[in-house]
Structures are given as structure tokens and as C-alpha cells.
Design brief:
seven-stranded mixed β-sheet, Aldehyde Dehydrogenase, Chain A, domain 1, alpha/beta, 474 residues, Aldehyde Dehydrogenase, Chain A, domain 2
Length: 474
Amino acid sequence: MQRFGLWLDGRWHETDRWIEVRSPYDESRVGMVSAGDAHSVQQAVEAARRAMSHPLPPAQRAEILARAAHLVEGRREDFARTIALEAGKPLRTARIEVARAVSTLTFAAIEARTLTGEMVPIAGAAAGVGKFAFTVREPIGVVGAITPFNFPLNLVCHKVAPAIAAGCAVVLKPASATPITALKLAEVFAEADLPRGWLNVIPGSGGEVGNALVDHPDVPLISFTGSAAVGRNIHQRAPLKKVLLELGNSSPLIVFEDADLEAAAQAVATHGFSHAGQSCISVQRVLVQETVAERFEQMVVEKVSQLVVGDPLDERTHVGPLITPAERDRVKAWIDEAVGAGARLLCGGEVQGNLLLPTVLADVTPQMKVFCQEVFGPVVGITRFRTLDEAAELANATEYGLQAGVFTASLQTAFEMVRRLRFGGILVNEAPTFRADQMPYGGVKSSGNTREGPHYAVREMTVEKLVVLHGVNL
């Protein structure tokens, strides 16, 4: 069994309270982690401020991030196994997450080397004649990062790596269900020669550690990934801070009659059930044109029935457990509620131990929770449409707007849907689950207010300062 303290000011600190980390699959104990409190957050913020009083040059930041990427790559199997144990993510999927984390760290290292301000065409106005102007980017200050359970390595890297690239120290509160991965990443950064205080990891409850971090006057920026409800609460608690929110979605995949149905059905089976649907861009709503709907439903069921459900540590497993029994029961209740309201159960819908079998529903309507809310479970609901107008209306008929997928052979249809869909990203002939870690990733409406990806996050974590020189006429 693994045992970790808090990672605070470059050292391990044990507390008198502990978080028991258990496997979502069989409830076996994975490890014990010290639980922090408001005092721990105060100590961490003080350590981060001391660290920032001795700024790291951009080249040093880049070298640290590159070394961290190399170290994570060298420990990919240990990280993947840890993710599988504490998050219940199938090992094959956990390995992909580790590879993505290496990519995130690498792109952040590039940003550390290239981050700069810009020239301001000040002489373009009469008042600017005889002046020379430019901007520089400076670290905003200590970054408070709050991360979810579903990507316990890569989403942590999406907070920590851009912050370090920007020259900001970090206080991180990882998800209480999956803190071990984050603490192992802290070890990596220490070995990569990140000076003490630049990364502090304080596991604990949201109500105690999370709120203390959000409320702290010396933390000017909060970066949060999680549910819309918690994100809104953070924004209300810290109205004068910069609050970066990556929130939920009810991801639509829209299939037109001219689409490659085989590819679209495979996208549903693969990306509707990976990590048991516990991704904010997991395929949840499938909107299919009525003329091909019956055939497409059969194709999806056939492919979903081939998924292996079971132990995350088994190399054959595609679908593992939900993070807690309570989440399993909630999702099962939503399925039953939809069937009671008229949805057809095409496959799944059963609980086997701690596992909820991959579920496909048909005749789902916009009033059902499995349509209008974020399921965050192994459930895909199919809804039929007749026209492009109806497809766009259905896709937009939720409070969310993170990413959407469109399958069609028509370039005209694709661009018309790009124009009409109110989402932060539109994927054409690809699942809405696609994400390359350097791309701008984020949503609109209740899906958030920022864009992640190192190039974009680094700029969010810096302040642009204007410099005007009088008497210079270039």
C-alpha cells in the first residue's frame, strides 16, 4: 500500500488526518494520503510566494518542464497503473493519458521559451508620434489549481505546466478520489530540479482545502476543471479574481444520412464508453437522420456489445467502473427514468457488481436527464431528426457548449453546422471526444469561460504590461 503526505515547500508533511484511496473496481485499498486543511493552504501559499520572490528565467523553466516530460515518459507504466488503480480507468486508456501528459509538458516547455509580448503601433495615432511602445508578459502570481478525478495526470499537467512556463508557482488541490497520481507528479518535478515552493500539492475536501484556496487573498488566479455547479460557486466566491473554468458538457454527435455510418458507429462505441463515459467530451447524445436511424442503431449496438467490461488492470478491458457506487446508482436511476419516460433500451442498463454495463438508449427526448444534463457515465442516447435545422436545434438544446461532432460527406453541410452550433469546438467526421493537447480547448455557455492548451493557458496566467518610451522615433 502506498502512503503519501502533503507535498509542501519541497518536502513531505504528514497530518493527523488521512484520506483512504480505494479502487473503484473492487474497493481494495490503494493507498493513504494525508488530508490538508486551511492552515496547510496558508503554508502552501506562503511557500509559493517565497518561491516567486526568486523568479526562474524562461530557459530554466523550459528545461525543468522538458526534464519532467522525460521522467514521466520513463515511468509511464507506473503512472498508468496508478491511474488504473485509483481512478478505475482501463490500463490501455491510462497509457494514452500518460502519453498525452508527456505531450502537455513538452508543449509547455516550448511556451516557456517563446512567451513574449508584442509591438504596439503607437505611432498610428497622432498622440503616439515620437514614441515607441511594446508589451511584456509577467506572471500573474500564485495559481490555485483544482482538478477532477477523471484525468488525474493530464489535467493536472494542464494546470501545473503552463503555470510554471508562465513563471507562476502553484498550489494544487487534486481530486480526493485520485490524489496519488498528482503526488507522484510532484516527485517528478522535484527530480526535474523545480526549486522548492514552486509546486505544492494539498489533498483534502473541496469545502475545506478548495474553499481556503479560492478565498486566499494572495492567490490571484484560480484554474478549475469540474462540474458547472461547483464552477459557478467558485466564481461567486471570488468575483474579483481571475477564475478560469473548464466545466461540463452534454456532447452531441450528429450523423447525417450521407455520413460514413461505419465510422460514426465506431466513434460512438469507442468514445461513448471510454473510461465508462467519465469525460466531459464523452459522446452522450447521438443525433441521427431519420432515414438511416434504424440501421445506425443496429450498427451501434453491435459494436457496443463487443466492448469488454471488467477489471481496469486487465489488458482486454475497454470499460471499467464508475468512480463511486453512488455515481453508479445515480446513472442507473437516470437510465431507468428515461426508459420510464418512453426511451427504448437497446442494450446494457444492468449493474454487475461495481460495474454498470454500457448502455444505449433510443427515442431519447430533450426533456430527459440523459439528454439535457451531463450523464458522466457509460450511457449514449440516440435521438432522430429530419432536417439540418432540427439537428442544429437539438444539438444546441442544452445549457452546455464544449465540443460537438458532425459526420457528413457534404462540405456544405459541415460548414453550415459549424456556423450554427454553439460550442467551443466542432469536430467534422470525428467524435467530439477528440483533443490534441496543444489545441485551444474550452467551451461556451455553462461549459466554461477559458481555453486550455499550453499556448493559451500560459497567456491566461500572465499579465500584459505596456511600456511606452517617449522621444524614440523608429
